[in-house]
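User: Hey, my collaborator sent me this sequence without any context and asked if I could get a structure. I don't really work with proteins. Can you help?
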Amino acid sequence: MGDSADPEAGRSNPVLTGPLSVLLGIIVANLSLQPLTEPDFGWHLRMGVDLLRQGGVLPARDPYSHTMPDWAWVEHAWLTDLTIGMLYQTAGGLGVILFFALVTSAAWVIACTTTSVAGPVARLIACSLSLWVALPFLGARTQVISLLGLAVLSLIMHRWRRGEKRILWWLPPLFLLWANLHGGFTAGLVWLGICWLGTAILRAMLDLRPGLTTWIHEPVPSRSGRTTLLLVVGLCALVTLANPYGYRLYGEIIDSLSDQFMLETLQEWQPPSLATLAGRGFLFYLVGLGVGLSIWYRRIEPIQWAIWSLFLCFALRHLRNIPLFLIVSLPLFADLLSVAFADLVHRLGLRALAMKRGALVMACALAAYVLWLGPDHLRGVCWSGVEPAAYFRSTSYPIEAIEWVQSHRQAVGQKLYNDYGDGGFLLWWLPGEKIFIDGRMPTWRAGDRRIFYDYVMLNSFSSPALSILDRYGVDWALVRKASPMDQVFGRELNWLRVYEDRKASVYVRRPAKL
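Assistant: No problem. I've predicted the 3D structure and written it out in structure-token form, which is a compact way to encode the shape of the chain:
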């Protein structure tokens, strides 16, 4: 990558790097293991359990809300939901945690195997740093399935560029499975499209100016190779239609990506901001990547440039796309770390003894870090999987109010109002209830019912139009303490607070006077 040092110079003896790799692997596992605090996990779990109960039959309409019961729901992660339901029923919450940790670790490790020069230690360091940046997006989130899909796609394309022609035919089965696991398969189709278009343009340029061949540092396939790639790309797109919803799956994805109100309202669909931890971490990553590129990157790889640039644009456009760029750029990041370390060794003239001492110091520092970070974090993760109700008492989720409702069901009404972020959690812990709104519903609209817009209107003004609640027949509410709607319900004479704690309040509508 760089001309100033041999990357192999930065690789230590396996006897030294072995313990270091083990410690780095523990850190990767530690970062991948996250508690069950993802807001949307609850409705994914509910869907999975219900699918098992119904023999895998998908609902034609939304079965979980009383506000949009006639909506033709397309659940693009139905197979992941089914997997979650099976794991939860057989291994509990801990089984789900371990599954998503395995998927996350596999995504980062597989993506790193496509490096050009990085050794095991550099790869694991890159994985650790990248996972730290990705922390706000990790956990029991169905999106990590697409990160694994993108990593496997990266590996297949890497091996194809190295001459393994038949490996391309693994792509259609990959996309067939991916399209039923998560809607992020479209990112993979974009990647393939760029690869084919980039190779076609690059081949045309080299045919016009053959002298450029010596300047290009990535292989350009022959005409037959490009034809095969185009055939495989078309087949991959075709097999994605083999899902329970057919072409409607694409309609759901397009609706989500084009709903301007949702894009402007939900934080995860907005550009990264330095006001958020995720935004600051991503900025540090980009700065480090930029410095490494400017100092050590000396390759001309137009197709790779196009892929990196497009996924960077995705990440800069929507916060939730940051992990996609982290996976796509991870091999580059690992290579830059390896070359930077080799260059440092070369410039400082370090010898074997110094390398041994450096490896020992780094191993000890990492051991101290693991001992400091590991126990409390892992204890919380295990606690959330083994005793979730007890664990959630230490979080902001309103588990106490939910337990009160469970034991006082006759004291509340039939049509619930809830906060957007709690909808999935309520579906998990109150499986007999239908909710007002949850994370599935920002783009849903039917006639004059636009549930997410109505929810935002209720929470955006000091004097909201409570007629919205009348329109949906709401007769009880579970809301966060001191939230806008908690304050509104608290001062309305026709609403009675029947429960409150430091996290939440429960209200019921007073009977109308005759």
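In plain terms: The CA atoms of residues 199 and 220 lie 6 Å apart. You can pass these tokens on to your collaborator as they are.
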